[in-house]
Amino acid sequence: MTDAYAVFGHPVGHSKSPQIHAAFARATEQDITYGAIEAPLGGFAEALRAFRAGGGRGANVTAPFKLDAYACADALSERARAAGAVNALKFEDDRILGENFDGVGLVRDIESNLKSPIAGRRVLLCGAGGAARGAAPAILARGPAQLTIANRDLGKAQKLAETFARFGPIEAMGYPELATQRRYDLVLNSTSASWSGETPPAPSACFAPGALAYDLVYGKGLTPFLALAREAGSGQLADGVGMLVEQAAEAFAWWRGVRPSTEAVIAALTIPLF
Hints:
Blueprint: E1 3-9, H1 17-28, E2 32-38, H2 44-53, E3 56-61, H3 66-72, E4 75-76, H4 78-83, E5 88-92, E6 95-99, H5 102-113, E7 122-126, H6 130-140, E8 146-150, H7 154-164, E9 170-173, H8 175-178, E10 184-189, E11 207-215, H9 224-231, E12 236-238, H10 241-256, H11 263-269
Parallel strand pairs: 1-2, 1-3, 4-6, 7-8, 7-10, 8-9, 10-11, 11-12
Antiparallel strand pairs: 3-5, 5-6
Helix pairs in contact: 1-10, 5-6, 5-10
């Protein structure tokens, strides 16, 4: 019997998840279908119940429903609890299990695909929203020398730093302070600025020579953030397509018990940055 999975979002028409999971299913010979469901705002729980009642086995969850998915889960992984958000669900017997693979997908892409170790390096994470919550614990688990959270609203960054202080060396900072502080070996943009063609207010001085600049947004080519990093002398630029595919592979393995190869899928979805 064919098992059904789907991604929930609003909007969701741009999602690459159906394409990614179809490729994974072909490669691993798994009998599944995978669709996209645009749940109405305020109606995630009802849409999820309907999908489950119709035979759904699991789901990915994208913006703006990751907190709704967290609330719907009967059991949460440690990663999901740390992030305070859920991006993957599995229906098991009478329970809904919640996971968050955003952070592990990001770290796998940085370290395995981009060959850029995090241990001992100075890391700057721009933004203090849901994406940053998923990324911060996973980054700290890799042993950076320091993780700095920068945000327009310093209070939000400070709250995030306090939440994750138990995981490793983390601090909060406003963007104006960055110009006078140390330079960073790895600079990540987790804000939504690139979706609208804007640049987060990170100063060019924050990029160490040869730094890796990583925009969690994908499919936009050379975003304003990556253009800023290039002009500042960053040695390596990357967008979030690898993170997207790696977190999808983690969810697929969680559902199906087999982890697909990601290299060909990342290559197929990658848009040149130059």
